[in-house]
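Let us practice reading a record.
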Amino acid sequence: MSDSRDIQRACELLRQGELVAFPTETVYGLGADAANPEAIAKIYALKGRPSNHPVIVHLANVEQIENWAAHIPATAWQLTAQFWPGPLTLILPRASHVPLAVTGGQDSVGLRVPSHPVARRLLEAFRGGIAAPSANRYGRISPTLAAHVLQEFGDRAPLTLDGGDCEIGLESTIVSLVGKPTLLRPGGLSRAQIEAVIGTLAELNPIDAPRAPGTTVSHYAPMTPLRLIDSVTLRDGCPPAAAVLSRSARPDSHRGLWITAASDPVRYGHDLYANLRALDQAGAPVILVETPPTDSDWEAVWDRLTRSAAAYTGRELA
């Protein structure tokens, strides 16, 4: 676990324009000084991330949003009072001095106050915004342990702060408050939790909505082809060498890696990325994931799994 010396070293690196990976309650982030476009460019280069994809600015406290947003509607204050620190990112009109490198060239900016104690200590010591997408190669599985960051980047990230296993394990919920409040990405907070505070969210219009992290059609993907499969097909037609994520017990006939996942959506989501990494490393020709329930509580899990499978949709089972 990272200590005060690690925090001090991380702040020194950030002020020098270097990158620091750090834990949040959602996933590990790859951070740079959000006021330094050259440092932010290093994030994009290391991840292989397209430059028009915005990154989230992490802040130490709610008061700092006034330094980053040009306009803060009443709904923002309602949501921050209820959910910050926590797994909620708000999209707001950017202040004129906010670098376009952070926003992907847009006039909106994503802001969040995380709750992880290591992230909070880092942000309080740094005293500025830290721009940070997930600490993985672009489009791949997000990290929920410091070891995952090292698997992705090795020593190419100058420092990784270790905060243990991420509490939530799925990225933050993203709500746009540019225009009508709209859910751009489900995550650590449910749609129902958001709507209980500010009322019904508008239907997402991809043409007009701001671009947001993690919302491309294909994302969160393992290197091994991944297919979603219903329980009946999984039971009757599962290739014996496939790597499988199911909510059912492993049958005796299956010789590949079989992970029996949690039956509740919170635990399933917490374990999802670690499970996908284990399946990806199994050397199987295909990863098969049993489709989860369609209840609203599973919305964030469905979002991640459909994007994980998108690059391989339409291929035959191996």
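A brief commentary: Residues 226-310 form one domain.
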